[in-house]
Design goal:
With about 200 residues, the chain is α/β, with parallel strands linked by helices. It is built from seven helices and four strands; from the N terminus they run αβααβαβαααβ. Helix 3 packs parallel to helix 4. The longest helix has 28 residues.
Length: about 200
């Protein structure tokens, strides 16, 4: 993602002196999460599928937050931004049983942390996107479709606003939630889905 110097300065200004933990970002956890979308119902879900999804989607966030919160408390506060999905407690989707279940758990974990540490100046929010046009999405479309164009058009057809979300749009929401502009916001899930859940 190419970022202009002017935009970079604006972002750095908003986040100057801030401590923010963003779980499930574009690499590492986020990359692993983006590639693990089991296409199963409860009847098709193996114990291995269940364990893998829980380890990647929720257990890693648990460990990261558990390590980060004491440091945030020692430094006077901070902001935790967890990546979930609209496929969660927000909306059920066919054949996304374990994916939806674990993303619902991310929202629950977010709210629990928010209420437990609100008096410590630690905010915790979740971002719940729908389809975001990322390299990992392109790889999944290529792996699961005989026609990349047809698969892309299928994804576009599901979006009420047309097109897919952009990583920059998620980054802008992360910047806002980590900044002082969001100082009075905690325990919320932010849907960024092009109107899909309307």
């Amino acid at each position: 993602m190419e970022v202009s110097a002017k935009k970079r300065q604006a972002v750095e200004g908003k986040l100057a002196g801030k401590v923010a933990l963003v779980t499930g970002a574009a690499q590492g956890i986020g990359e692993a999460t983006a590639r693990i979308v089991h296409h199963v119902t409860i009847l098709d879900c193996s114990e291995k599928d269940w364990d893998t999804a829980w380890n990647v989607n929720i257990k890693i966030i648990f460990f990261l937050c558990k390590q980060a919160i004491p440091n945030m408390m020692a430094n006077g506060g901070g902001s935790i931004i967890n990546m979930s999905s609209v496929v969660s407690s927000i909306k059920g989707v066919a054949n996304r049983y374990v994916y939806g279940t674990t993303n619902a758990a991310v929202i629950g974990l977010t709210k629990a942390i928010a209420v437990d540490f609100v008096d410590k100046n630690i905010r915790c929010n979740a971002i719940c996107p729908r389809t975001i046009d990322t390299p990992s999405l392109q790889e999944r479309m290529k792996a699961h479709s005989t026609s990349k164009k047809m698969e892309y058009e299928t994804f576009i057809a599901r979006q009420k606003m047309g097109g897919m979300g952009k990583p920059e749009e998620i980054a802008s929401l992360c910047t806002f939630l980590a900044s002082d502009e969001a100082a009075f916001i905690t325990g919320k899930e932010y849907v960024i889905d092009g109107g899909w859940t309307l």
